[in-house]
Amino acid sequence: MRAISALLFLAVALLLVMAYQAARQELGIRTLMTRLNRAKKIVQFNEKEIVATKVNLDALNNRIESLKTNGADMKTQIMEAQKSKEDGEKNLQTCMKVKDDKLNKKKDMTDLLDKMKATQEAERAKAQEEVQKLKQQILDRDKAVCAFLDTTLEEGKKLCGV
């Protein structure tokens, strides 16, 4: 019986050791499960943050692409505006040159007109002087004719104004 009691004692001791080991393993597993669940939650949280960051990154990349496109459009518009400005400046220079030419031509024409007026005035004065000379010659001839005419006659009086 001693052997049975020793065997029973050993069996109970072994059962207790195994129960202790099972409880210890169960507590270890629970601890590991808790840590695993915490790590799982942290990973899920980090995954959500990564996804949100990726979405933000994609949105920023799209915005950068649209800004690049807008920048290219702006460059094109700037180039067109600069070309239009250059064309306008060329047209302005051409117009200014034409204006200067027209002003020079107008000045030349005005000078020519002034010369023609001066020449005309000189000719008019010369013509009036000649008219006066001719009138004087006519008066002198009339006086000479009147000197030879007989003023007693009616026709002589009319011609000489006596």
TrEMBL record:
Superkingdom of this protein's organism: Eukaryota
Keywords on record: Coiled coil, Signal
Keyword Coiled coil recorded: yes
Coiled-coil regions, chain positions: 50-77, 117-144
Signal peptide: 1-19
Name the UniProt record assigns to this protein: Uncharacterized protein
